[in-house]
Specification:
heterodimer, A: 279 residues, alpha/beta, six-stranded mixed β-sheet, four-stranded antiparallel β-sheet, 24% strand, B: 164 residues, mainly alpha, Arc Repressor Mutant, subunit A, 7 helices, 3 strands
Chain lengths: 279, 164
């Protein structure tokens, strides 16, 4: 009953939003790209309700880079799935680009993900009978790029992510870390205005992580909004904002101080107690 | 001990040792002040690990040059061979977290959040420092500090799970 009701009201709201913007195009002037209010998700395990997300309010500005941290089981991945339309919330609203999206059909979500929202998840879902290069190009083509643009974009992304030599390989022949980077390249192929990434450096060694961080930082500089889930504080603090999730709720939402390396010769005042040589 | 190691190569005076330390460990290492270095050298001399002599300079005041004694060389070799202490167990923040209710502060989540923000900002500073540091000893020091911070953050999460 509750589900039905929320779907109906979702449809009404969508209609209203459409009527409000008759051109149907995104409102590029509005600073808020993504807004979630009071979203919840309750799974059922053998009839017992298991709340995974328990009322999250979240706003992401256009071009903002934010990280979500929190212990396993705190609802990070579920939250990202909800925001990317892979799961439907039990309650609450999600607005993307001024349009209510939490009640959209899977087909409509698929269109959104082709054009506007890039997603990298912990499972990579690469197309196994296509080469690495074609996996990335296909995503760009589906996002509306010409063949030539798609090829150039693929070339650029695979180089940046250190995968140029693997362009013609089948995904199955790649290591986990390499597949993860291909999944990132694919998600970014059509320059989505919002990139959602779940542990994008989870399988990577330090140099792979650095490559991914450089690509994300560049995407952010180019104006893409990024929301990523990570355990790795080095990745999280590349973002300007860190949201801590705990028990399905936001425990903290902190803006980072602007970073600058200490001036040469100056003792770095940000680092007390971390480094202490004795003797 | 770092001073003994630096003196193992050749005799030096206090200011040279300060410069050598800075060159080797970079900006991440809290630059030792010259007073501390002289106090340490005097202690090492009292313990018989270094010996010093004044070198007369024409245009400037005399400088005192230190060199390693045999006992100093032995102590240094012993230090190099010995495994170092494991992880620190004394942690000021943990004491605060454990004892804050006694001090009348009951909101442990606020305490944890504040500390996490601080760690994350430190991590941001270290991250910037790492990318500004050439690969080598100084960079490894920064990377080590970043891994320690990551562990501190993981531990903070555990504290939050247990205590909040």
């Amino acid at each position: 009953m509750i589900d039905l009701g929320s779907q109906i009201s979702a449809k009404k709201a969508t209609t209203k939003a459409r009527n409000g913007a008759p051109q149907g195009g995104p409102d590029l002037g509005a600073p808020v790209l993504l807004r979630a209010s009071g979203i919840t998700k309750t799974f059922r395990a053998e009839g017992v309700p298991v709340p995974a997300v328990r009322g999250v309010d979240l706003e992401l500005q256009r071009g903002e880079f934010a990280a979500i941290m929190g212990p396993s089981g705190s609802g990070k991945s579920t939250l990202l799935h909800l925001l990317g339309g892979l799961e439907r919330p039990t309650g609450g609203e999600i607005w993307l680009d001024g349009r209510r999206v939490d009640g959209l059909s899977q087909a409509k979500w698929a269109v959104l993900r082709r054009r506007q929202v890039g997603i990298v998840f912990q499972f990579f879902n690469l197309v196994s009978n296509m080469t690495v290069a074609d996996n990335v190009e296909l995503a760009a083509l589906m996002g509306g790029a010409t063949r030539r643009q798609a090829r150039e974009r693929r070339h650029e992304l695979l180089s940046d992510l250190g995968l140029r030599a693997k362009a013609d390989a089948a995904p199955a022949l790649l290591s986990g870390g390499e597949q993860q980077r291909v999944a990132l390249a694919r998600a970014m192929a059509n320059r989505p205005s919002l990139l959602l990434a779940d542990e994008p450096t989870g399988n990577l060694d330090s140099s792979g992580s650095q490559a991914v961080l450089r690509v994300l930082t560049q995407a952010h500089a180019d104006g893409q909004a990024i929301l990523l889930v990570t355990h790795d504080a080095r990745v999280a603090c590349a973002a300007g904002r860190v949201i801590s999730l705990f028990d399905g709720m936001v425990a903290d939402d902190a803006a980072m101080r602007p970073s600058r390396p200490p001036a040469p010769g100056q003792p770095s005042r940000t680092l007390p107690g971390v480094l202490r040589l004795r003797g | 001990m770092p001073l003994l190691a630096l003196l193992a190569k050749e005799p030096a005076h206090g200011y040279e040792l300060k410069i050598l330390l800075e060159q080797m460990f970079g900006d991440a290492y809290p630059s030792p002040n010259i007073g501390q270095i002289y106090v340490t050298l005097q202690r090492l001399e009292r313990d018989g690990l270094v010996a010093s002599q004044d070198v007369v300079q024409q245009t400037r005041p005399n400088k005192r040059v230190y060199e390693l004694t045999d006992a100093g060389r032995e102590a240094l070799a012993d230090w190099v061979d010995r495994p170092s202490d494991g992880p620190r167990v004394r942690d000021d923040f943990f004491m605060k977290l454990a004892l804050s209710p006694l001090a009348g502060a009951t909101d442990r989540l606020a305490l944890i959040n504040r500390q996490r923000r601080d760690y994350l900002n430190q991590m941001r500073g270290l991250s910037a420092l790492a990318s500004a540091t050439e690969p080598g000893i100084a960079r490894l020091l920064v990377e080590g500090a970043m891994l320690h911070l990551q562990a501190d953050l993981d531990w903070l999460e555990r504290c939050q799970e247990e205590l909040v």
